[in-house]
Amino acid sequence: KSETELGRIVEELHLSEEEQAMFIRKLLVTGMERKQADVALTAVEKLLGRCWSLQEVRRGFEELRGVQEDLVLDFPQVRECTTELVREAVKRSLLEQQDLVCDNASIV
Question: Which pTM does this prediction carry?
Answer without folding.
Answer: 0.86
